[in-house]
Design a protein that fits this description.
The protein is an alpha/beta fold and 294 residues long. It has 9 helices and 13 strands. Strands 5, 6, 7, 10, 12 and 13 form a 6-stranded mixed β-sheet that branches. The two termini are 40 Å apart.
Length: 294
Amino acid sequence: MAKLYALLNPNFGELVTLGFTNRFDNFLYFYYPVKRRRFIKKTAAITALAPALGFKPSNVQKTHLISFSFDDGFRKSFYKLAEFHEEYGLKACLNVIASGHFPNFQAVGQWILPELMGDFDDWNYFVSRGHEVMPHSWKHLNLAEQEPFEAKKLMSECIAYFNENLIGFKPAKAIFNFPFNASTPELDQYALRLVRAVRTSGNGALNPFPTKDTKWVLGCESHGPDLSDDWVEEKVDRFLSSDGGWLILNLHGLDDEGWGPLSTDYFVSLLKRLVEVKNLDILPVGMTLDKYAG
């Protein structure tokens, strides 16, 4: 114990809790000089050192959940995202506009362009590989700004189209991801008659740990229009330094696609580091509810 402590703790710093055990301890606690924004990297490095020092990882209870929830349906970015997640044994969380592939689909601002959108052949391919594909509205209107009757009609039309065209889609297991993360209590409640949960702005990105038999109005946060790398890094570092819960970050495309894109190099490096954090689970939103809320 003394040898390990001296190696990992040349100076006093922030308390880090790791899930390594030996015959004497359930958890070892190390003081390690951690600066914010380096937390993930150093935690992963200590994790990697443990087997060489004679310590074996235990079945650590998950205290932190992260969902990287990607919106809109950018074909190029979504294929890359599926590949990157698969490389690290993860499933991508992909939310698509139901009519985004229609010939008459209109651009939404300068970010959501018809020529960038995938179609349901693409979405069914991702489902066949185990990724999660969920509804992100019929045509990406701000539903909170529509007449309630029209907003509800668009939501119902979206769910019906998914039900007919996405293999294995089950409304009772679905997440409706509001465009612009904009909803009203009335629209939230209507959506919950159609699907299992909704993702909206809520009370921010930090949600309580899922429990059974709950109708979920889930909060999230997003960043844009500039690159989101630094913003994501800060959010994730702060979350991993907290007591835990469920962080949902709303993202869009990679590199030159979408509002507030992530750079490919950054996102790959982030996943590589995060899969080493033993008390963290990285899952799509629906799969998180399936696993932890039953």
